[in-house]
Amino acid sequence: MIAPVSDIVRTQMSRRRFAGWLVAGSAMAFAGGCSAKPAVQGTFPVRFSDAEWRKRLTPEQYYILREAGTERPFTSPLLKEHRRGTFVCAADGNALFSSATKFESGTGWPSFWQPLKGGIGTSTDRSFGTTRTEVHCTRCGGHLGHVFDDGPQPTGLRYCMNGDALLFRPA
Predict the structure, then answer these.
(1) What is the dihedral of CA 107, 134, 61, 22, to 10 degrees?
(2) Per the residue annotation, which of 89, 137, 140, 160 is the catalytic one?
(3) Per the count of CB atoms within 10 A, which of 105, 131, 132, 149 is most buried?
């Protein structure tokens, strides 16, 4: 008997997620909790010295936003945030995502299918032996996460963000 298409797709998605977890876990173990690289380079409207960023951000925020780190999956309180509002950059308050585009991806990080216009920029991330699209804040250059092409319609994209890089502002 041939399995229904929906069961095949679900199995493939589960295998893909499992493989992704293996790769992510291996990469994080290999890195020993260290970040892969510094945050995206460039000139941004909001700039501070390294010492000033350390004063303004929590250690977790600094690690993610300024050193391109990644928080442990399923640790962000923003996973359970379902109110109407806007997700902003924790470093400078730049509006990034509307709560209307948030969805439950099951990956362990807050996920969105579309950013707010002008809120994010992207760059190529070749860390850990793979090529991914990194997402950063357009105002401060802070690392937010990555974008993948396995999200829901209408965009088919999954903006997988670190919760410690975001703050939520209710509507």
Answers:
(1) 40
(2) 160
(3) 105
Instruction: Tell me whether the omega of the peptide bond preceding residue 154 falls within 30 degrees of 0, making it cis.
Output: yes
Q: Which of 73, 68, 97 is nearest to 157 (CA)?
A: 97
Give the closest residue to 50 by CA, choosing from 141, 116, 157, 114: 141
Q: Would you identify the CATH topology of the domain 37-170?
A: 2.170.150
Structure tokens at 35: 């970040």
Active site residue 160: yes
Least confident of 17-31, 90-104, 112-126: 17-31
